[in-house]
Design a protein that fits this description.
Rossmann fold; 2 domains; binds magnesium ion; 6 strands; 9 helices
Length: 214
């Protein structure tokens, strides 16, 4: 089977990671409020409903509000990303991925992004080695998945994501795919599940039990 997994809030504790990222700037005189407001400004200015994180744009906006040492703060952020990103991978992830691989499934990481920050985060997470392929981009995931199925291929797959609109997109494109709506306690988004979600789980152990029975 082909198993497609989302990154943020599915494999990665993005809320906790953002919380710490925010606190890194306090030493430079940037309050957490200021940090949040600056990012909010970027979002409004871009006018996109969903936008993945753009570090450069965020820093530019932050510098308008407050004069702080750009070089020093960048170094601090880069050190944090490099040394500590792995700590934010949920504890059930590596065991799950290894087991799924051992059972002969092909694994694909399908992540939404609009800048190159997401690629850096994924690389620093140390998870890339478990996947047959990684796909990151701004497209709806139903479209993204097309490249992984041949023209006449029987669709035997499972898609796991915390965002309902992505599940809907995949279900619309591949009605036969098994969809699992990930709703972790620590997740940032808690959309109500609907008929596009074949299953709803709160961790990967539950997802594993579902896949075992198939
Ligand atoms: Mg997600």
């Amino acid at each position: 089977m082909k198993i497609f997994l989302d990154f943020d809030d599915t494999l990665f504790n993005t809320a906790a990671f953002i919380g710490v990222s925010r606190s890194l700037f306090v030493d430079f005189g940037v309050s957490e409020e200021m940090y949040k407001d600056a990012w909010q400004k970027v979002r409004e200015w871009r006018g996109l409903e969903s936008l993945s994180y753009d570090f450069e744009a965020h820093m530019k906006e932050l510098h308008k509000k407050k004069d702080f040492d750009d070089k020093e703060s960048r170094k601090k952020v880069e050190d944090f990303y490099r040394e500590r990103t792995r700590e934010y991978v949920f504890p059930d992830v590596e065991g799950f991925l290894q087991k799924m691989r051992d059972r002969g499934n092909a694994l694909y990481l399908i992540s939404f992004k609009t800048g190159d920050f997401q690629d850096k985060k994924i690389a620093a997470s140390g998870l890339a080695k478990y996947f047959d392929a990684l796909a990151t981009g701004p497209e709806e995931k139903g479209e993204v998945l097309r490249q992984f199925f041949g023209e006449n291929e029987e669709v035997n797959g499972c898609f796991v994501d915390d965002r309902l609109h992505q599940i809907e997109s995949v279900k619309r494109t591949f009605p036969k795919i098994i969809t699992i709506h990930m709703q972790r306690r620590e997740g940032r988004y808690h959309d109500e599940s609907n008929e596009s979600c074949d299953y709803v789980v709160s961790d990967l152990e539950e997802a594993e039990n579902i896949l075992m029975e198939r």
